[in-house]
Design a protein that fits this description.
With 246 residues, the chain is mainly β. The protein has two domains: 8-13 and 105-233, NigD-like, C-terminal beta sandwich domain (Immunoglobulin-like, Sandwich); 16-103, Beta Barrel (OB fold (Dihydrolipoamide Acetyltransferase, E2P)). The chain has helices at 14-21, 117-120, 195-200, and strands at residues 8-9, 23-24, 36-44, 50-54, 59-62, 77-84, 94-103, 105-107, 110-111, 126-132, 136-145, 151-157, 168-176, 184-193, 206-213, 217-224, 231-233.
Length: 246
């Protein structure tokens, strides 16, 4: 696999994140009792409206599309929190009112080499969820920072795997804290495209993922493409949000 250009995570304070990077939308629909979240692709319906094609195959029409800053949704892949409206629109599973929308970092796998090893780093990071979808290997992650440094997030293949199993690709979820201080917890979501690794390994069953955690050192997670076993949950107590990832 060829080495891909690294995409960097720009870390800023959570209050600035909410105001400047993410689209935090006023929720005027105060009578809705239930709130939901989803991850999917932001799609332009027409000049005035957007929808979300979710990873689970749902099509959602956004009722308050005028509130969304689509220019800040660089990857096109979004995490959204919303209420479901009592409205029926042909061609859509639901019409929703979005009150928070966040641009998800989308990257390719990177092969670890002597040349990029220092920049990729190997600092502590934790994951609260890992799951596969048709096109991505996804991570919900947490790290700590003083708020003044750029952190790098990557998923790498290596020449010498620490674990192996037939049918599974060994990868490492890597974090470079750039010598930042460990003060405040931040959360983020990253999705890594699987098309290239699947084309190179058409019989691939899933991944073995190594994470260097804060609490337990090295941990290994096995994620299968099998729908019955394609999600790993790790309980975490962290707060904050890493904001838009660049």
């Amino acid at each position: 696999m060829t080495t891909r250009q690294l995409i960097f995570t720009k870390l800023v304070c959570v209050c600035i994140i909410m105001a400047a990077f993410s689209s935090c939308l006023d929720d005027d629909d105060t009578e809705q009792a239930y709130y939901y979240s989803t991850i999917g692709m932001l799609e332009k319906v027409d000049d005035n409206n957007y929808g979300i094609a979710t990873d689970t195959g749902k099509k959602l029409l956004i009722s308050n599309s005028s509130d969304i800053d689509s220019e800040s949704m660089k990857s096109g892949r979004v995490y959204a929190e919303f209420t479901i409206l009592d409205v029926v629109k042909e061609g859509y599973d639901n019409v929703i009112h979005v009150y928070f929308i966040y641009d998800v970092l989308v990257k390719d796998f990177v092969h670890l080499t002597d040349e990029n090893m220092q920049e990729i780093g190997d600092d502590n990071i934790s994951v609260s969820e890992i799951w596969t979808t048709d096109d991505y290997l996804n991570f919900r992650f947490q790290f700590y920072s003083g708020g003044g440094k750029t952190h790098y997030i990557n998923l790498v293949t290596v020449d010498e795997p620490k674990q192996s199993e037939d049918g599974y690709l060994y990868v490492e979820f890597r974090h470079n804290a750039n010598y930042d201080s460990v003060e405040y917890p931040y959360n983020g979501i990253a999705s890594f495209r699987t098309a290239d690794v699947l084309s190179e390994n058409p019989s691939l069953k899933g991944f073995i993922i190594r994470v260097k955690t804060y609490s337990s050192g090295e941990k290994f997670y096995k994620i299968s493409f099998d729908k019955a076993d394609n999600k790993t949950d790790v309980k975490m107590d962290t707060y904050g949000n890493a904001g838009n990832l660049e």
